[in-house]
Amino acid sequence: MRFPTTILAAGLLAAFPSYAQMMMDVPAAVQVPAGQMAAMTWTGTGMLTYECRAKADNAAMFEWAFAGPDAKLADAKSMAPMGKYYAGPTWETNDGAKISGKQVAVAPAASGNIPFQLVKAEGGTGALKDVTYIQRVNTKGGVAPPMPCDASSRGAKTTVPYSADYVFYKAG
Questions:
Q1: CA–CA separation, 24 vs 8, rounded Å?
Q2: Residue 136: Cβ-neighbour burial (10 angstroms; 0-12, 13-18, 19+)
Q3: Is the predicted pLDDT of residue 144 greater than 50, yes or no?
Q4: Is 164's pLDDT higher than 50?
Q5: 3-state DSSP of the chain
Q6: Which residues of 23-44 are buried (b: 16+ CB within 10 A; e: fewer)?
Q7: 10 Å Cβ neighbour count for 98?
Q8: pLDDT, tens digit, for every residue of 6-50?
Q9: Pick from 143, 160, 155, 161: which is nearest to 51 by CA?
Q10: What is the pLDDT of residues 68-102, one digit of tens each?
């Protein structure tokens, strides 16, 4: 018995999920809303900066507070350079397209890794103009440093290496 090619192709697609679908095993808190389709996945590799600051709810105590990222972005499959990621949060392509956003949710990742994150995109330009959400997954490292942070080190900054995959979604 012969199966039409379209039925066979549909069966293979169902049996072998796409790269983006395989990565979607993340907590419910950072799942994108229904109707969104993964458009691209970039790997960010770089440094996260932390600053020793007084705690917001107790000025007599100190903590390492997140101050911002500085990472290079590459296509997750080919590792071709795509752009950079920096404070905002902002993702910028090598040709100048940009998108920023606002964090809407986080969920814990494995110990020693920064949390998963969901960002609602705002104000994209160029190739990023139709992006609706950015999801941070597959995080490695990046947590606040274990060294002491106290009044004597107030204002000190330190960087911590990290990597993560950023999945960019568009309305489907």
A1: 25
A2: buried
A3: yes
A4: yes
A5: CCCCHHHHHHHHHHHCCCHHHHCCCCCHHHCCCCCEEEEEEEEEEEEEEEEEEEECCEEEEEEEEEEEEEEEEEECCCCCEEEEEECCCEEEECCCCEEEEEEEEEECCCCCECCEEEEEEECCCHHHCCEEEEEEEEEEEECCCCCCCCHHHCCCEEEEEEEEEEEEEEEC
A6: beebeeebbbeeebebbbbbbb
A7: 18
A8: 333 333 333 333 344 444 578 999 999 999 999 999 999 999 999
A9: 155
A10: 999 999 999 999 999 999 999 999 999 999 999 99
CA 128 to chain centre: 15
| pTM summary value | 0.84
Q: Which residue is associated with the tokens 């494995």?
A: 110
